[in-house]
Design a protein that fits this description.
heterodimer; A: 164 residues; alpha+beta; Alpha-D-Glucose-1,6-Bisphosphate, Chain A, domain 4; 2 domains; 8-stranded antiparallel beta sheet; 4 helices; globular; B: 117 residues; mainly alpha; Arc Repressor Mutant, subunit A; two-stranded antiparallel sheet
Chain lengths: 164, 117
């Protein structure tokens, strides 16, 4: 099994996945740095992604669209925050309008990628995907957060279990 | 971004934001099987009617509760399906990344085989 750990942290509104590959960090980095390779894994087979711009440098932009079975083409972009080949990458992934400009109505999602040598020819990659900040949510909701999102997901499970 | 999740993010934020507060979570839990109006709900908390009303409004916008009319009363009821949706979204997001990592693994292995030749 490639995925070695999954953590869902409702407080930080984040999802962390760790995976290991039988390859060098340089090889794993190429999955992100080469747009043609990126296209082969970013979208599912039913929604392949096409990367039309790929500036992997701080402040750079990556633009892509996905093509659905009905020919629909949702556009999206990354705003590149940090790049340290072959070890880390931080991007902000958001939805775009058809001309590639950010769709400001839609929330963005930060993706932090860390790639490190795990020894014995293996490489560990961790992906942390963070949903919009609680600050952003406070703005959306116009309310202060009393205690963050502590246990929200666990409590949902609890509530659902009680109601089952 | 995957289309499955694409429709959902605004609601997702709202739902999580709404559940970030313990009074609101308590209201959600209470309103699963009670038939209380806002005034009755407010009696459980050390805060004003207006404050509770505000909490209920946040929950309502997030699709987590609805106000239903029972006779002459308006009661707050939990939308259990809404709760399930929230939970499923995080799970879907995990599935999406698992799919990506599977494809990455395939790609890496393909390459390794080619260079071995």
């Amino acid at each position: 099994m490639t995925v070695t750990a999954v953590r869902k942290d409702p407080q930080a509104l984040s999802l962390t996945l760790e995976a290991e590959f039988d390859a060098s960090p340089e090889r794993v980095w190429q999955l992100w740095s080469d747009p043609r390779q990126l296209e082969r894994w970013w979208g599912p087979p039913t929604y392949p992604a096409t990367f039309t711009k790929h500036e992997l440098e701080p402040g750079g932009r990556v633009e892509y669209h996905m093509t659905g079975p009905e020919g629909d083409q949702p556009h999206a972009y990354w705003e590149v925050q940090e790049v340290h080949p072959p070890n880390s990458l931080v991007v902000r992934d958001g939805f775009a309008n058809e001309d590639g400009s950010p769709d400001t109505e839609m929330p963005t999602n930060e993706i932090q990628v860390t790639i490190e040598d795990a020894g014995a020819g293996r490489t560990r990659m961790s992906i942390v995907s963070i949903f919009p900040s609680t600050e952003a949510m406070e703005q959306v909701l116009g309310l202060g957060m009393e205690e963050g999102l502590t246990l929200a997901v666990g409590q949902i499970d609890e509530i659902l279990a009680e109601n089952a | 971004m995957v289309v499955l999740v694409q429709i959902a993010p605004p609601d997702f934020d709202r739902m999580f934001g709404a559940l970030a507060d313990h009074t609101r979570r308590d209201i959600v839990r209470r309103a699963i099987d009670s038939e209380e109006g806002i005034a009755e709900l407010a009696s459980h908390y050390p805060m004003s009617f207006a404050a509770v009303q505000k909490h209920v409004a946040v929950l309502e916008r997030a699709g987590l509760v609805t106000k239903q009319r029972i006779g002459r009363r308006k009661v707050v009821r939990t939308n259990v399906e809404g709760l399930r949706v929230t939970r499923r979204l995080l799970d879907q997001y995990e599935e999406m990344w698992r799919g990506r990592i599977d494809r990455m693994t395939q790609l890496v292995n393909e390459y390794t085989r080619e260079t071995d030749r």
